Amino acid sequence: xxxxxxxxxxxxxxxxxxxxxxxxxxxxxxxxxxxxxxxxxxxxxxxxxxxxxxxxxxxxxxxxxxxxxxxxxxxxxxxxxxxxxxxxxxxxxxxxxxxxxxxxxxxxxxxxxxxxxxxxxxxxxxxxxxxxxxxxxxxxxxxxxxxxxxxxxxxxxxxxxxxxxxxxxxxxxxxxxxxxxxxxxxxxxxxxxxxxxxxxxxxxxxxxxxxxxxxxxxxxxxxxxxx
Length: 227
Ligand SMILES: *Cc1c(COP(=O)(O)O)cnc(C)c1O
Hints:
By secondary structure, the chain is an alpha/beta fold. The protein has one domain (about 5-225): Alpha-Beta Barrel (TIM Barrel). It contains 9 helices and 8 strands. The protein has helices spanning about 5-20, 40-50, 60-70, 90-95, 105-115, 145-150, 170-190, 205-210, 220-225, and strands spanning about 30-35, 55, 75-80, 95-100, 120-125, 155-165, 195-200, 215-220. Helix 4 links the parallel strand 3 and strand 4. Helix 4 crosses helix 5 (about 105-115). The longest helix has 21 residues, at about 170-190. The mean pLDDT is about 95. The chain binds pyridoxal-5'-phosphate (PLP). The site of pyridoxal-5'-phosphate has 13 residues, from strand 8 and helix 9.
């Protein structure tokens, strides 16, 4: 068995163990394989082992991969990189998900540019949960307004929230940050019936994320090795 297949087995076991530990159902946690900077061959290995959801950060690279694997109809591609207004059209045309909505303007552009023959683009609002100036995403206080505007856009489907928390060696601080995301997610869920995705957790913080209600983990390094 090659490394990627073994890594996928290991990460799925980690998800199952964390789910069991925190009284969650493993099926409620989606594994997104983050394939940025990784080759077609690496992605093909993951596909061979049943992985079908992939996340890409860089538009050009992501589009090349979507084109390369276009004969595989079951693949689901998530855009998880920084959004720029001038890039929205190609995202709207080619991806199934966008995790990094951070302003109404980009949401409106994605909505207008989504081809009518495709299902609505699934979108997540990115929350800057550590209030870091250098990080993209809105503050929790801005969420209600932006969510209310996005749910009115017919070619987008608001599915939930995404965050990239700052790594923090203080486990209690880290848990309280993740818990605040979980609370925001539950509040949003009460308001809108289609909300089901909390995109939170990467290779280093997968277990805490699952403890705090993540329903989708974005894993690169633990599947494909370091970049
Ligand atoms: C690169 C990246 C990941 C994957 O991170 P790993 O630590 O390699 O698992 C997840 N989410 C986003 C937004 C990323 O840019």
